[in-house]
Amino acid sequence: MHTHRRPPSPLHGADGAPLRVLVIDDEPDLTEVLSGALAGEGWEVRSAADGTTALALARTFRPHAVVLDWMLPDIDGLQVLRQLRQELKTVCVLFLTARDAVEDRIAGITAGGDDYVTKPFSLEEVLARLRGLLRRAGMAYEPDGDQLVVGDLVMDEEAREVVRGGALIDLSRTEFELLRFLMRNPRRVLSKAQILDRVWSYDFGGRSHVVELYISYLRKKIDAGRTPMIHTVRGVGYVLKPESS
Amino acid sequence: MHTHRRPPSPLHGADGAPLRVLVIDDEPDLTEVLSGALAGEGWEVRSAADGTTALALARTFRPHAVVLDWMLPDIDGLQVLRQLRQELKTVCVLFLTARDAVEDRIAGITAGGDDYVTKPFSLEEVLARLRGLLRRAGMAYEPDGDQLVVGDLVMDEEAREVVRGGALIDLSRTEFELLRFLMRNPRRVLSKAQILDRVWSYDFGGRSHVVELYISYLRKKIDAGRTPMIHTVRGVGYVLKPESS
DNA sequence: GCAACCTCTGAAGAACCTCTGAGCGACGGC
DNA sequence: GCCGTCGCTCAGAGGTTCTTCAGAGGTTGC
Questions:
Q1: What is the mean pLDDT of each run of 10 residues along chain B (245 residues)?
Q2: On the CB side of A126, how many CA atoms lie within 13 Å of its CA?
Q3: Where in this protein does the record say 4-aspartylphosphate is found (chains A, B) (predicted)?
Q4: Contact with chain A for residue B144, Cβ under 8 A
């Protein structure tokens, strides 16, 4: 039956080579977490803590995508962007910015096809945006378009629409991200810690039972009156799986 | 004497060399037990009782994986992690933490691809997590993916699913761990003491007949109405073996 | 500034799991 | 065949984990 689970990500470009991403951020912890998560998704990752290093590295590494903190110790993010653009013809750039920072200015920049995420962000958000960028740039090998399917549950990431058995389901932002994470890891038990780390912002300190709460919300919307797809694995976590098995 | 049972694990990395693991913990007893179990699984093991020693050792030993106690006498676990990360590009880290320490956030850790286990833990849990980490990092030589098969009994560790003869069997956490241990040692008689040491937490003092109880539970779920696979060896222990033999 | 909505906390109850005790049955030695 | 030991299983106490309600506080959009 289902052998091949969660492909150790055959993430690669049109040319077949693995996709490369450069993470530029001066906070070591954040860089660490981002790099780890990206590597886990199959990216080939390099990182730099400042603009100068980053530009030098980009020259040889030639990344397909860049995750760029707007605030760097040496160079302004905009400068870095221009340089990158000049030296690499096709590169997708995802900005990381503080929430209250000049959103309008960034909005103008992203018109070029780039995108941005405001801090504090969740890993799921960053990963999803990056996938979106790549898809739009036509650089990603996408096995199944932008549709996520598990049983009769279908998610359209771009449209942010979720349908089960033909019925459109309305989800809040967090509910959507949680479900997306579950749908990206079907038939795999995910611990609450894993979920918290991926779906909630990295600065979410409060020990609480948010995950359980949101699972409860999701169940009410997804499983209501149907064969349940979200299952609790006591003492371990939760799994999303299609009915059969 | 020992025929080639339970291949002293052809555990080795993609490069063919045996996998190395570094155990960092200041409790000698625990280190001892962990090291022993890991060695028994085919790992090449080294250990250190504090962060400084560990980091020095890591430099020459270059472990593929690290089992790291969060509370060390000298350096904070997080510091050790950072250093390790910096010096070894690819290393899987498994944390050991006190139960209530989880609350003050080991965030981002699982996101980075690492994992943690709370004390008190069972050896099976540590070993299983470590295998999981390696698998996800693509470092392990995995003969058979994450499926454990004995006769018509199949266990999917990631999904935490157990199937016998096509029927899905629901197991509690302890039942699952016990069965996993049995399935990892098929056709081999395991003493109750061995089982207790591997499946139950190391601080489980109460000499009792839990093992018998749980074997009884398992039988009811696994063997119910079928040819028994779990056999008692009076005065010695239990064996799991496929029907034939 | 208001209304609608969302996110999180606290708390209570439900569901579930683990282990203890005890009785009974099975086995093997003699 | 009898007896002692070892193993099996029932039943239930006690603890843990999960679920859900209700509501405070914040954010968003109008």
A1: 44 75 95 96 96 96 94 88 85 86 64 86 95 85 79 96 96 98 97 95 84 98 95 96 78
A2: 33
A3: 69
A4: no
